[in-house]
Amino acid sequence: MAAATEKRPEIIELARGLNHVPMCEDYERMVSGMIIYTAGHDTSILSRRKFVEFGHPVFIGDDCWIGGDVVILPGVTIGEGCTIGAGSVVTKDIPPFSIAMGSPCKVRKTIPSAEEEEKDPNNPYRNLVREDRDE
């Protein structure tokens, strides 16, 4: 299945009453089962009874890979070049070029940007050419 992005909204399943559409940049890889929440409520029982809810946008940067069954909570930004491990619950922002996983999701390591990889003469992907791509 192709990645769901704002550029291909026909493959994003929107919940009834959704008021914030997740913003996704280019080259994301999103695996099935991922859930992006953009709304929630306070823990107050009275606020639930009175249907007090909030909405916060979610932003996913360029070149991200989001694993299967990941849950992303309202207001989270996942920076450019991140990989989020399968089954993670993302509760806070993830800085660019991070590999993060867990529940709650935590940064485990950082990785170089594509531009930094291009400059590395020992990178095995530096001169790789894929003829089936338009790049």
Task: Describe it.
The chain has one domain (1-10, 20-42, 52-135): 3 Solenoid (UDP N-Acetylglucosamine Acyltransferase, domain 1). It has 2 helices and 13 strands; from the N terminus they run ββββαβββββββββα. The protein has helices spanning 45-49, 114-119; strands spanning 23-24, 29-30, 35-36, 39-40, 54-55, 59-60, 65-66, 71-72, 77-78, 83-84, 89-90, 98-101, 106-110. Strands 2-7-10-12-13 form a 5-stranded mixed β-sheet, with no helix packed on it. The chain has a 3-stranded parallel β-sheet with strand order 1-6-9, with no helix packed on it. It has a 3-stranded parallel β-sheet with strand order 3-8-11, with no helix packed on it. It is elongated and about 60 Å long.
| Uncertain segments | 1-5, 16-21
pLDDT averaged over residues: 81
* CATH-assigned fold name: UDP N-Acetylglucosamine Acyltransferase, domain 1
The total count of strands amounts to 13
**Into which percentage range does the β-strand content fall?**
15-25%
**What is the share of helical residues?**
under 10%
Keywords: Transferase
Organism: Aspergillus arachidicola
Family: Belongs to the transferase hexapeptide repeat family.
Pfam families: Hexapep
